[in-house]
Amino acid sequence: MPAPKNTFKAALAANQPQIGCWMSFGSPLAAELMSTTGFDWLVIDGEHAPNDLLSITDQLRAMNGSASHPVLRVPIYEDWILKQVLDAGAQTVLVPMIDTAEEAAAVVRACRYAPAGVRGMGGAGSRVTGFGAISDYVSNANEEICVLVQAESRAALANLEEILAVDGVDGVFIGPADLSADMGFPGNSDEPAVQAAIAEAIQTITKAGKAAGILTFSQEAAKRYLDLGATFVAVGMDTLLLAKTARALSAEVKALT
Length: 257
Description:
Elements: H1 7-13, E1 18-23, H2 28-34, E2 41-45, H3 53-63, E3 69-73, H4 79-87, E4 92-95, H5 101-110, H6 141-144, E5 146-151, H7 154-158, H8 160-164, E6 171-174, H9 176-182, H10 192-207, E7 211-215, H11 219-228, E8 232-237, H12 238-254
Parallel strand pairs: 1-2, 1-8, 2-3, 3-4, 4-5, 5-6, 6-7, 7-8
């Protein structure tokens, strides 16, 4: 039995828009809840959320069998981190702060078995193989891993065409918050210069035949990015959704007293 089909990777390759949401609770119960809400993909955030390998594994387990595909964002590019989350069962990884083609190529190598890469061969007893039940996992595992890298700086945008030329990079995610800060507008990703850079980047990514992704909390912006050709667009964050709804409800009921 080979590695299972990565339906999210296939959807990106077919240019089918995928609408997603961020998950920042670090909770398998929250992940299970979110996986019932209809999003095509959900980010398990290992960069800014309170996650470790065990909480990541629990969330992957909680989402197992749902229609929402887990996208695992690691905290930083390191071979050992990618090795661990892949063995835990992640099929799609999102790697932050990639500024050069050399860095992107290193990410791809870390996600592939030899001779195409340097991923360790210890998955036979891990969750990714069903603890040995998927006996032929390595035969097609390289093809079913989806590698997404984040472009979040002026340097990344300057090197974008070279990053896109790296074989094995399936998509590039534009990080609007860090990009706006690097451009001199911290906390203001709506600055026209930032939005112009994002629009140009999305068009460059799609022209190269790769998938473009981004996070926004505005439905209007989401529509604009989709119209520009972005394929995987996240439109919210679980913690903020709860906070916003709870604050509104509290204020509405208190107004009645």
